[in-house]
Structure prediction request, 368 residues.
Amino acid sequence: MQQAGKFSSLLQIIVFALSFFVFQPFAKAAEEENFNVGEMIMHHIKDAHEWHITGPEHGGTSVYLPVILHDNGFKFFSSKYFYHGKEVTVTSKDSLTLHYMEGVGPAKGYALYHEEIYKLNNEGVLHFEGEHPHNASPTDLSVTKNVASLLLGSLLILVIMLTVAGFYRKNGAVAPKGLAKFLEPIIVMVRDDIAKANIDKHKYHKYVPYLLTIFFFIWINNMLGLIPIIPGGANLTGNITITLFLAFCTLLVTVFSGNKNYWGHIFWMPGIPVPMKIFMIPIELIGIFTKPFALMIRLFANITAGHIIVLALISIIFINKNIAWAGLSVPMALFISVLEILVAFLQGFLFAMLSALFIGAAVEEAHH
Prediction:
């Protein structure tokens, strides 16, 4: 009974946190005449120059990140000069009502539109054709929410791994304690169930560090992404650029690990007629790139879909403008959020396992 009571209290705390941190921006949007669900969801999952925590979109509680622009030299300033700038409403020639933030202070002369930075023209305005600005853009090297989350997640991985390595360096091969006790089974799982199971038993050792790195990078950043209300939580692996880079790393490791047997099966497959060999070469070459492409899309789509589903479920309350819908949407959103904890781990496991599978095929020796 005590455990049931504790779980009930924990559930209440979670629902309260959701209502305070998540519902408040939704309620603000619901006060507007038209509640645009798609626009709200994209605002929450896309990259930004600030960490919005709670309150209205402009003027709420946020962590403002540094903006770095290269435009006739480098310019450095805080993104608050955009978010606290002048909100401009314009009507395009297609009769669309558009909004952008005109920078003030050191950001004067620039505008922020859908998290893209543009230079204002000679008249000091942002010119639109349809929904797209046609002003020049400076080179944006800013530390955005995803960049900051990437740095924080990488630092967290370094601290965790160096702490565990330091424990074993100091104590040797003893029964683990503390953080090492929690991580050792996971590290052994990656070594035995991912690397050893898919790569030749004489060659898998040198690939274990890479597989551990991508597994923990994906898992830890996925977990951080489930807490968007704190600095460090961002939709990092829901960014196609991040998943593209991870897939590209697997492609490089696979290609540079390929042995004579691997390349022989791509360019001159044994045991089939010569005309068929010529026909199969371009198909095999395309296969080299489609495998990491599938890795990229799988990770991106699964993580992004989870965030979108939760936001869409919460939106039901404000679409219908009736708090009674919370009895349906909040438990469903909570269920999906809990399920995402499993997905966060599972996506790291699948990415590492499929990477090991591709590497294993590249280093496999010919069987006679």
